[in-house]
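Table S2 (text version). Query chain:
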Amino acid sequence: MSEKLIDIFLMPGDYFVGDGQYRVRTLLGSCVSITLWHPALRIGAMSHFLLPGHGRRKHDRPADKPGMYGADAMQLMMDGMAQHGVPLAQCQGKIFGGGAMFPRSAKVRDIGMQNGDYARSMLQEHGIHVVSESLFGEGHRQLIFTIRNGEVLSRQVPPEPAWSKEEA
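Corresponding structure-token output:
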């Protein structure tokens, strides 16, 4: 019989760092999640950020959403992994999200695409090997990250057609 896992649900702006007793879940639209996982130590981290870049001013970083910006979320995850003695260069990175919640324009890079591109550049900048990604497309994603084995289940849900009012 396997040990029961403790479920954590990330809201936008949240992040989590923990060991193999945790399973982390979230829902993403245009937001992006990065997972970091150390295979030997079985310690992982997951973010759910809303915007690329970082909150430059104190009021840009609400206390209840410290990981609202990608760079802030990444720093919080790296600090948490360091507290567990995890060498970042040995971690596996995965990136998810950046979906289009509205029809995409060929002329404008929407926030989902900006978030996904920013996540890629952050992992590259920190020397973290990206082993998989599921980015962009239409609709939202459901994610489940089981830290024990590093597995991330991702399910993309296409947008529902707009409601129409029937005439009587």
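Notes on Table S2: DSSP finds two helices and nine strands in the chain. Helices lie at 70-83, 111-125.
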